[in-house]
UniProtKB/TrEMBL annotation:
Gene3D superfamilies, sorted: RutC-like
CDD domains according to UniProt: YjgF_YER057c_UK114_like_1
Annotated ranges, domain Endoribonuclease L-PSP/chorismate mutase-like: 26-135
One Pfam family here: YjgF_endoribonc
Protein's name in the database: Enamine deaminase RidA (YjgF/YER057c/UK114 family)
Organism: Paludibacterium purpuratum
Amino acid sequence: MTADNRFADASKDLGYDFSGELKIGGNCSPVVQDGKQLFISGQIPRMGDEVLFVGAVGDGINLASAKKAAAVCVMRALALIQRAIGSLASIQCVSRMTVYVRSAPSFTQQSEVADGASDTLAKVLGSIGMHSRTSVGVLQLPKGAAVEVDLIVSIK
């Protein structure tokens, strides 16, 4: 099974369709290619005009929902990569992922939230999806989103 097929399966498992328009906020490019590297702008869990998970994790958003939000974010990033280079099979490796978690003051499980994105990368890309990662708790994210994810990938 190809990475593109696993992406389609992961979309179904999450219950979201990533084939439509992926709205991007701000005056920036969602994907910038520099040689064999792709830099993917921060993705929030947005489908169409709706941000799916709004609020602070640990205060209104529980860990399971935050992990799902992180998975949606990374699926958006993968959809953007797929559109930019034609197929996820062209990914050589995921070099870096940063996960920003809008956290309640007492919330300390940012790493566990980031696992939602990491597990999704592993499911879709297999060993190629293994990456370095930073997870950071923040006060606020665009549109009130609970999670934001950005990626750096190398392509063949």
